[in-house]
# Entry
Amino acid sequence: MAKDTPVTLAVIIGAHGVTGEVRLKVFAEDLSVHRRFNGGALTLKSVRPGNNGAIARFAEVTDRNAAEALRGTELTVTRDELPPLGEGEYYHADLLGLAAVSESGDPIGTIVTVENFGAGDVLEIEKPDGKRFMVPMRVEAVPAWDAMTLTIADGWAE
# Structure
């Protein structure tokens, strides 16, 4: 993924109150490490936990009407604004679109979704015929990946 590629960290799902706060569905562990979103169009003043996500205040949003107008807006930063990763860590955005290959290098498909149902990440892979299957993002199923390909262990790509 290119360093200037936008990565979605949250989406505005509605207004909260009458002073311009918004409700967010958050896809990141901590939004507060970022101050500017969407190429500087939105400046985060505060964020706190909410009922089903978070409540945020942006400097540019001062009333409920402005907050409602942003419903559906994705909050993005560029890939190079994300914190560096440790060994064996990955961002979901880096996996999407990768070519999935077998241990012998044969093409299997493309990573189309990364889900987490509570027991760890699960990759959804689409084969060339359009059929999809899922693989857990664990070393026994995915022994290796890099910026171009993700290797699926033998027996998992059935």
User: Anything to note?
Assistant: The chain has two helices and twelve strands. Helices lie at 64-69, 92-95. Residues 126 and 132 are 4 Å apart (CA to CA). The mean pLDDT is 91.
